[in-house]
Automatic annotation (TrEMBL):
This is Glycosyl transferase. InterPro entries: DUF8094. Keywords: Membrane, Transferase, Transmembrane, Transmembrane helix. Signal peptide: none annotated.
Length: 607
């Protein structure tokens, strides 16, 4: 009877396990859905809107096929549309029924001015068409992909992101484009069926073992009523031989008992089958489905999007650093201009001139890229855009503060201000990077001093010291730069007087630099303001028969083009300065956060 129950358990287990596996295989149905994207042939770009990408819930997988290298990138919809503002492209959107629809978007015709001064549409012949723009490497993209012939990219984009597909920006974009989404197709009874089948199989194995054990115990003849044999004397030699037989029989039983572990193989198989159905959608979900609840956010209502994300800023800084490093090595000013502007561009171009003439002149310090300790992007949907970054330079054991700006959607970010933070600098309270900060106008009256006036006021302090009318506005206790400038000027004046022998005069002056200030607001109604000042050393002879010589100053001699002059020399240094400027009514003073100073130029004084 035990065998009957064992066979029944095996059969029922096979049915249950088979039913569970069938739910996960042949009866499960489709696990994904695919939609083809209709593309207008001949357009260099295809823009798939975020709503189209989310026409079906879940992650998206892009597949684009064509000849040559295929490019895809994604970013905020407004940014991608701004980048495509002057190009023809195919826009893919989601229809009311969830299907994908495409439409050709034509760039507005460029305008020209006729002889009468009136604007008119420019001719649209082939000679007047603009060359295509390569989308690779734009700072607007949050991420980009490139593959030859077939591009497959897994994505998970929200509705406010869009996807751009192209080749090189000139040739036609691929037309064979599909988007695939996974389909939620749960099988809630697959897991219980497989586990229940495994339990029944284990029970069947147990019953089968019991049946075998029962048969073995009942084996052998059962004789009743037979005559008892006559008792005879025991032969000892025969007894010894029988002992050997008894010993052999016991070993045989031990061997037979050793075969029992093979009965554990079906149990191991059952465990493997049970584990195969343990994914979340293979089990029934009890209770109500959780629904999303509104959460509070720190983003102010009506706040515009931050210019960059943390990952985007890190990638931009890496590319800026690599481009500037390559330009520094080759002393290529045109390559430098691709990623540097303002004071950073000016002082590095001077460095290239000096290194070209002076063999042992030091190259400028590399731009550090990580880790980005502080990121403050401008919250602005239009252009120009700015973001500030503070990066710890582990090798130099200093922290660098930088300002980078982007002029328009088609330009990359350029490093326009760079300085070292002062030791033990305490940064003011800043907005998180996912919120961003607004730019402060140069003439803002809400600060203790308008950004456009900060450089001039500080230059006046460098020139006049405590006699300056602005002296009380700036914190002198934490300003190590002002102290170092005073000490350096005193030392150079002493050295000049020793060699001049009353035949020359050395004087110093400071003024605001030509670069526009860059300012971002802080949380306490203040602002971080980046400016430049120019320090000028003026060496003049006081005797008509005297000349100013530069025997030990190859730097000034190289930039001025002469080693001596009867009229004298001027040497200019560019100071890149970062200040924290409190708001109006604050009891705080303007604090210097960081600085850098480099030689900018030298020339002979005109008569």
């Amino acid at each position: 009877m035990r065998f009957v129950w064992a066979v029944a358990a095996f059969v029922l287990a096979a049915l249950l396990i088979g039913a569970g596996i069938a739910q996960r295989t042949v009866f499960q149905g489709d696990t994904e859905t695919t939609a083809a994207v209709a593309v207008e042939e001949g357009t260099p770009f295809v823009l798939i809107d975020g709503a189209a990408l989310n026409a079906v819930p879940g992650a998206q997988t892009l597949r684009a096929q064509g000849e040559g290298t295929i490019f895809a990138a994604y970013g905020r919809t407004a940014d991608v549309q701004a980048w495509l503002a002057d190009s023809d492209y195919t826009a893919v959107t989601a229809g009311a029924d969830g299907t994908l629809a495409s439409a050709l978007v034509t760039a507005p015709a460029p305008e020209s001015t006729d002889a009468a001064g009136e604007e008119s549409a420019a001719p649209t012949d082939e000679a007047a068409q603009a060359q295509g723009r390569d989308p690779v490497g734009s700072d607007l993209w949050l991420d980009e992909f490139q593959q030859d012939d077939v591009l497959i990219a897994p994505l998970q984009l929200p509705t406010d992101m869009s996807l751009l597909i192209a080749t090189d920006g000139t040739a036609a974009a691929p037309t064979d484009i599909t988007i695939t989404w996974p389909i939620a197709n749960p099988t809630p009874w697959a897991g219980p069926l497989i586990v229940l089948g495994g339990i029944l199989m284990a029970l069947g194995v147990f019953l089968y073992i019991l049946g075998i054990r029962h048969v073995r115990r009942s084996r052998g003849p059962r004789r009743k009523g037979l005559p008892v044999p006559v008792t005879e004397p025991i032969d000892l030699s025969v007894e010894q031989a029988d002992k050997g037989v008894i010993s052999a029989t016991r070993r045989g039983r031990a061997i037979t008992g050793g075969k029992r572990p093979f009965a554990l193989v079906p149990i191991a198989l059952v465990s493997a089958l049970a584990l195969s159905g343990c994914s979340a959608d293979a089990w029934p979900q009890f209770g109500s489905t959780p629904t999303a609840t509104p959460t509070t956010t720190l983003v102010p209502e009506g706040q515009q999007a931050p210019a960059v994300t943390q990952a985007q800023a890190s990638r931009i800084l890496q590319e800026v650093s690599e481009t500037i490093a390559a330009a520094d090595e080759a002393m290529d000013a045109s390559q430098l201009a691709e990623r540097a502007g303002g004071a950073v561009l000016a002082v590095r171009k001077t460095n290239y001139t000096l290194r070209d003439e002076i063999d042992d002149y030091d190259a400028p310090a590399a731009i550090p890229t990580k880790p980005v300790e502080i990121l403050l992007p401008q919250a602005y949907d239009a252009w120009p855009r700015t973001f500030m970054a503070v990066v710890n330079d582990a090798e130099a054991k200093t922290a660098n503060i930088m300002m980078l700006t982007q002029d328009d959607p088609w330009s990359n970010y350029k490093l326009v201000y760079s300085a070292n933070l002062e030791a033990a600098t305490e940064m003011p309270a800043l907005a998180p990077e996912y919120v961003g900060a607004s730019a402060v106008p140069p003439d803002s009256s809400f600060l203790l001093l308008a950004p456009q006036d900060v450089a001039g006021a500080y230059a006046d302090i460098l020139t006049k010291g405590e006699k300056s009318e602005y002296y009380g506005l700036f914190d002198a206790d934490t300003d190590m730069f002002r102290q170092s400038v005073a000490e350096d000027r005193a030392q150079r004046l002493e050295d000049f007087e020793k060699t001049g022998e009353d035949t020359g005069k050395l004087s110093f002056s400071s003024a605001a630099g030509p670069e526009s200030p860059v300012s971002l607001a802080t949380l306490e109604s203040g602002a971080i303001v980046a400016v430049t000042t120019h320090e000028t050393d003026i060496a003049k002879p006081t005797d008509s028969a005297a000349v100013i010589k530069l025997p030990k100053n190859p730097t000034v001699a190289t930039l001025a083009g002469k080693t001596q002059s009867a009229t004298g020399f001027t040497t200019t240094f560019s100071d890149q300065l970062f200040f924290y400027v409190p708001g109006q009514g604050s009891n705080e003073k303007i604090q210097l956060l960081g600085y850098s100073s480099d030689i900018l130029g030298a020339k002979v004084i005109d008569k």
